[in-house]
Amino acid sequence: MVTIKKIAEQSGFSQATVSRLLKGDESLSIAADTRQKIIHTALSLGYDRSKIKTTLEKIAVLFWLTEQEELQDVYFRQLRISLEKYAKINNLEIKLITHEDDVLETLQEVAGFIGIGSFTEKETQQFKSICPYGVLLEINPCPELFDTVKPDTDRMTQLAIDLFLTKGYRKIGFIGGAYLNPDTQRAEMDSREVIFRQTLAQRDALDEAFLFTGGNFSVETGYRLAKKMVESLGDDLPEALFVASDTIAVGVLQALNERSIIIPDRLELISINDNEIAKFVAPPLTTFNIDVEEIAKTAIDLLVDQIVHPRAITKTVLLGAELIERKSFTQA
């Protein structure tokens, strides 16, 4: 058990000072470097973070999405809220930064950061030169510089295909958005589409006619692509459809419902995210549940680990997902 006495001995400060600091005594006046040394010593010895009642560190969350993009994808809004929640639980003071803020100046004032969105390689290298500790979520252009946390959407894609094939489907379609490369400002194939193509090609079941992609991850994109699919294929629709996100799937359902194409009677559908809306659309979506809270918790844990135990190597954490079975697809 890590005691106040042991922390005091290791840090070189009195037990009274250590105790008052860890208990969050606001009347205690100590230098910033003294405060940091005591807290880092406590954490490095394995002291329970939940027992520390003072702010551990100040961190930044770089939210590299426009307000419109955030509103279009509930996932990112939930992620931001979860990060704020777990920062508070860990006694971390958090500052939200967007494109419009003076990012480089802010990074000089924090112990580390968590990045959400699309960053260029140049931006990432600039961040490293100012703030050595960081975690990027989803997309990391320089994984050798910062830790990465992301859902394993590649594996989810493979599992969806396996579920379709197990039910005997051979006409399997895909609807998804594109990845906008921030370095080139060009749309590129999203990793879910890459894995979808590779996996079905290996199983000799890939049909290019059943793939419809392009645009951002929005309801409008899903509606447009599903409408295009029906117009181009007519009655020769896929038997099963994998959709890259619930947000896109909502638009897909709207387009299919308008044309009286009944799911799951005419075709079955699986998507990714398990947003709250997935329960309430018609039919309710069968979707892979990405645990947003676990992503946020893992990111916070990794960042604190870097700050307390600096390391030369970076880590990449892939989080799995649970299939939430509703009416758009059933395994039976």
Automatic annotation (TrEMBL):
Lineage top rank: taxon: Bacteria
SMART domains: HTH_LACI
Keyword Transcription: yes
CDD domains attached to this UniProt entry: HTH_LacI (cd01392), PBP1_GalR (cd01544)
Annotated InterPro entries: HTH_LacI, LacI/GalR-like_sensor, Lambda_DNA-bd_dom_sf, Peripla_BP_I
The HTH lacI-type domain, residue ranges: 2-58
Keywords in alphabetical order: DNA-binding, Transcription, Transcription regulation
Key word Amino-acid biosynthesis present: no
Coiled-coil intervals: none
Protein name: LacI family transcriptional regulator
UniProt gene name: lacI_2
